[in-house]
């Protein structure tokens, strides 16, 4: 029964989190708390896993090397007009609200547009939100593998504009515990207290 509930929860969160970056709105809001009563941390058996990418400073980032710290993982791209900058602003504020606990959390942004989002661009962009944010880059096949691990959907959409294309992508934020296990997927627009409660629960785990 518990496994069935977990699968239904994952399906629901992934369904609402796939959104076009051309759309606005706060999809997640506080309905998670109303529906589930609390941040019910799970250990997802079929989502997540170790990976290695490169950060905006050219240094390898391996998830398993971050053990001892929680990780908030978000997938997006730099020319996203709405969902990505909104999420990054929210995460920057959440990091401030965490206070001293923020040092125990890694905030990582994985680009799903490696053709345009090179490490130097990730560096210049993310510093506008929080200098502590990591921007993770890889070759297209590497990004595809990580996205598959975390069941992230993304698709290039051609546009008659100067940008040439946008990317529709999953907009959930993944909370990974200190052992590297995925514990929660926060929908876009989740309220700060709800996210912070989840982070605090993860930090309290042995």
- Separate helix tally: 6
- Spatial arrangement of strands, main beta sheet: 6-5-4-9-10
N- to C-terminal distance:
26 Å
Question: How helix-rich are the residues, as a percent range?
Answer: 25-40%
CATH architecture: 3-Layer(aba) Sandwich
Radius of gyration: 16 Å
Largest sheet: 5 strands, mixed
* Name of the CATH superfamily: Glutaredoxin
Structural class: alpha+beta
Order of helices and strands: HEHEEEHEHEHEEEEH
CATH class: Alpha Beta
User: What's the rounded overall pLDDT mean?
Assistant: 86
Could you tell me the strand content as a percent range? 15-25%
Q: Got a strand count?
A: 10
CATH fold-level label? Glutaredoxin
Could you explain the architecture of this structure?
With 206 residues, the protein is α+β, with helices and mostly antiparallel strands. It has one domain: Glutaredoxin (3-Layer(aba) Sandwich). It has 6 helices and 10 strands. The protein has a 5-stranded mixed β-sheet, sandwiched between helices. A 3-stranded antiparallel β-sheet has the order 1-8-7. Strand 2 and strand 3 (60-62) form a beta hairpin. The model is unreliable at 1-37 (pLDDT under 50).
What's the structural blueprint in terms of helices and strands?
Layout: H1 2-17, E1 18-19, H2 31-36, E2 52-54, E3 60-62, E4 70-76, H3 83-97, E5 105-111, H4 119-126, E6 134-136, H5 140-149, E7 154-158, E8 165-170, E9 173-176, E10 182-186, H6 192-204
Parallel strand pairs: 4-5, 5-6
Antiparallel strand pairs: 1-8, 2-3, 4-9, 7-8, 9-10
